[in-house]
Design a protein that fits this description.
alpha/beta, Aldehyde Dehydrogenase, Chain A, domain 1, 2 domains, about 20% strand, globular
Chain lengths: ~425, ~425
C-alpha cells in the first residue's frame, strides 16, 4: 500500500472504532487506563531499549542537547505518565451526561447529552510521552485517536503504541481506537489533513510552524494554540508586595512556558514607586527588562523596547515593561499586542477588578493571581491536551470535557409539528 | 480600492466594532433590535422599491419562479422579520453569564464566563430576510458580523443594510458591527475566507456547493450544515397509530426542508402489518416509495430502491423504505447512510428507547416524536442561525448561545504557583 491508501485505511478503521468507543462504559475505559499504567511499569526495559535507539540515532544526527532531553523517557517521565494515566482513569466520565433538560409547551422533553467528538487526530513533535498522555485523554472521552509523532521518537512511539494496543485488547476495546502512524513522511501528514470524512478534529502540538502548517492544510476543524504573550497589569491600587510576588512568580518560576508573563503594564501613578523595586527584584533574578520611554526614565539602566518587543513571546528571562496612563490603556494594549492567552490585574479596587475581567477577552482573565495558573491541572480540569487560543469549541485549557460535544435528545409521546 | 483592500478594511473595522460590541449591555442591544423592527415598519415602501428592482432584474435574467419567490420581501416576510427581531430582543442575554464556578485548594476561585465569539462571517444565497435575521442573532450575542448575500438580492440587501446601520447609530452601537458586502464578486468572497485574523467563524447558508466551497477555502473555523438525511425507525413495539402519525408528519408536513424524513426503517416483525397501511396513507398524500426487496415483497406496487436512494436527500414527496431485522441493523444503517442530522425511534419499549438515544450520534435523537422538531424555535432555543451537522463547537440548531464561547475567569488574593 502507498501512503495515501495506508492513511485512508487508518481513517476508516478509526471511524469504525469510534462507534464502538462511544458505547464503552467508564469501567472498561478505566480498565484500559489502569492496565496501561501497569504495563508501562512491567515493560520499563522494553521501553528503555526502544528509547535508547531513538536517543542514539538522534545523537548521530547531531540533535542538540535540549532536543535529546525532550526525547528521553527517563524513569521520572515514565512515572509521571503512569500517574497521569491513573488520574485520568479517576476523572468523571463526561459521556452520556445530560447537562440540561427542559419541557416544551407540547410536552416534548428536550435535553443536551454529552457525546464523544468521534475521531481525534494529533500531530506532535519530539516528546514521546505525548503518545500515551494524549491517547489516555481521548479514550477517556470515548474517542478514537490517530497519533502522528516526530520522526526522532519513532522507535519509542512504536513501542508505546504496541503497549497501548495490548491494553486495548485486554480491556475489550477495539485496537483501532489508538493508531500511531508508522510512517513519518510529510505526504502522509498531508493526506491525514484531507480526511474530513474520517477525522472530526485535528490538534497540532508543537511549534508555531507546525501549527500554521496544520491550520493551512486541514479540511477538518483544528484546535490550536499559537503563542502565549501574557500580561500582568499592576493597577494604581495594587498592593505592591502582592504585585511583586505575582510578577516574580509569573516571569521567573518557569520562563520557558506559554503561561509565563512576557509584558508588564504598570499604572503611571504607582510606577515611580513600584518600578525601581521591581527592577531590583528582577535584576537579582537575572531578568533583562525592555522598557517604554517612561519606564527607562524611572529605571535609567533599562534597555529601550522596540515595537516588536510588545508582541514577543520571549520564553526566557526577558520582560517588556510599559507604563500606562490608566486601565483602559492597559486593556487596549492587551487587545492590540496580546495573544488571547492569559492576563492578570493586580488591584484592591473592586470596580476595576470586575471591569478588567469583563473587558479583557483572553482564554483566562485573572485578578490577583499569577498567570502561571493557566493549565488544566491548576484550574481543576484534570489533565489537559493543550490550551486553545482560538475561540470556537474550546477557549483555554482543554481537558476531557473539551474532547466531547453535545447532541440534542428529545423524549415525546407522539408529538407532531403543526 | 480593489476588492482585496476593501474586504480587509471591512475585516479590520469589524474587529474593532467587536471590541465595543462585547461591552454592550442588553438594554442597548434590545434598543437596536426593537428599533430595527420599527424601522422595517416605517420603511416598508423603501424596502419594497429596492426589492422590486431585484425581482425585476431577476425576471429579466430568467430566474425560475421558486427563486423569484425566495427573493420577494412580501408583507408576510417583513412581518415575520419584525416578529423575529422582537423575539430575539426578549431572549436572555448570554454574555457575561458565569456558567459554573469552583474553588481550588489554594483558594483561587475559577469559573467560566460566556463571551461573544467576536466577528462572525455569513455567506448566504437568495433570501434577503437572512440579512436581518442573521444580523439580529449575531448582535444579540455581542458579535460583529460581515454578511455577504446573493447577487440577485443586491438592492434589497443594501437597503436593509442601510436600515440596520441607522438602527445601530440610533442605539449608540458602532456602525461597523453589521457590514454587508457591496460587491458580489467571487474574489471578494475568497478574500473574506482568508481573513483568519479578523473573522472568528464563518457560517455558510445555502446549497451543498456553496458550503463545500466555503469549507475548502476558509482558513477560519466553519460551522456547516451539509444535508439532512433523517430517519424514523419503527420498532417492533411501536404503537402503529402513533407511528403512522409521526411518519406522515415527518414526510409530508413540509417535505422540502432538512428535518423532513427521507428514509423509513421498519422492524421486520411489524412490517407485514405496518407497511401496507403506511403505503396506503402515503399513496393518498402523493408520496412515492422506494423500497428494499422485502418492502417490495410486502407492498408489491412499491418501486425498488437503488443504492443511492439510501443516502438521498430528496426534499420532495419521495421516501426510501427498508425493512430491518432489528434495532441494531437500523442503527448501523443510520451510521452508514445518515448525515448526522435527526433520527427518531417509535417504540413503547423502555430499554430500546434509551439505547437508541445513547447509540445514535446525530445532532438530535428522538423518541416518539416527529423529526420536524429539529429547529431552534421548536426545541426552545429561540431563533436559530442554522443547524450544524459537524460536531465541533455546536452540533444541531445554533441559537444565540451558540454564537458565544466561554473564557475562564479566576479571582485570587495573591496566589502564586509553587
Amino acid at each position: 500500500m502507498n501512503h495515501r491508501d495506508k492513511v485512508r485505511t487508518m481513517g476508516k478503521r478509526a471511524k469504525e472504532a469510534a462507534h464502538e468507543m462511544a458505547k464503552a462504559g467508564d469501567a472498561v475505559k478505566r480498565d484500559f487506563l489502569e492496565g496501561t499504567a501497569k504495563r508501562l511499569e512491567s515493560e520499563r526495559r522494553r521501553i528503555a531499549e526502544a528509547n535508547d535507539r531513538d536517543i542514539e540515532s538522534g545523537r548521530e544526527k547531531g540533535l542538540p542537547d535540549p532536543k535529546l532531553d525532550r526525547l528521553r523517557l527517563s524513569d521520572k517521565v515514565l512515572n509521571e505518565m503512569m500517574e497521569g494515566l491513573r488520574e485520568v482513569a479517576l476523572l468523571p466520565d463526561p459521556v452520556g451526561r445530560v447537562t440540561s433538560m427542559w419541557t416544551r409547551p407540547n410536552g416534548l422533553r428536550v435535553g443536551r447529552m454529552r457525546i464523544p467528538l468521534g475521531v481525534v487526530g494529533i500531530i506532535y513533535e519530539s516528546r514521546p510521552n505525548v503518545t500515551v498522555d494524549a491517547a489516555a485523554l481521548c479514550i477517556k472521552a470515548g474517542n478514537a485517536v490517530i497519533l502522528r509523532g516526530g520522526s526522532e521518537a519513532f522507535h519509542s512511539n512504536q513501542c508505546l503504541a504496541a503497549i497501548l494496543r495490548e491494553s486495548l485488547r485486554a480491556a475489550g476495546l477495539p485496537e483501532a481506537a489508538i493508531q500511531v502512524m508508522e510512517t513519518t513522511e510529510r505526504e502522509a501528514v498531508l493526506e491525514m489533513l484531507q480526511l474530513e470524512d474520517c477525522i472530526d478534529v485535528m490538534i497540532p502540538r508543537g511549534g508555531e510552524e507546525l501549527i500554521r502548517f496544520v491550520a493551512a492544510n486541514a479540511r477538518m476543524p483544528v484546535l490550536k494554540h499559537y503563542k502565549g504573550v501574557c500580561h500582568i497589569y499592576v493597577d494604581e491600587d495594587a498592593d505592591p508586595d502582592m504585585a511583586e510576588a505575582l510578577c516574580i512568580n509569573a516571569k521567573v518560576q518557569r520562563p520557558a512556558v506559554c503561561n509565563a508573563m512576557e509584558t508588564l503594564l504598570v499604572h503611571q501613578r504607582i510606577a515611580p514607586e513600584f518600578l525601581p523595586r521591581m527592577a531590583e527584584a528582577f535584576r537579582r533574578r537575572g531578568v533583562e527588562l525592555r522598557g517604554c520611554p517612561e519606564t527607562c526614565r524611572i529605571v535609567p539602566e533599562c534597555r529601550r523596547a522596540e515595537e516588536e518587543d510588545w508582541s514577543a513571546e520571549y520564553l526566557d528571562l526577558i520582560l517588556a515593561v510599559r507604563v500606562v496612563p490608566d486601565m483602559d490603556a492597559a486593556i487596549a494594549h492587551i487587545a492590540r499586542y496580546g495573544s488571547n492567552h492569559t492576563e492578570a490585574i493586580v488591584t484592591r479596587n473592586y470596580e476595576r477588578a470586575h471591569r478588567f475581567v469583563q473587558e479583557v477577552q483572553s482564554s483566562l482573565v485573572m485578578v490577583n493571581a499569577s498567570t502561571r495558573f493557566n493549565d488544566g491541572y491548576q484550574l481543576g480540569l484534570g489533565a489537559e491536551i493543550g490550551i486553545s487560543t482560538s475561540r470556537l469549541h474550546a477557549f483555554g485549557p482543554m481537558g476531557v470535557e473539551e474532547l466531547t460535544t453535545t447532541k440534542f435528545v428529545a423524549f415525546g409521546n407522539g408529538q407532531v409539528r403543526v
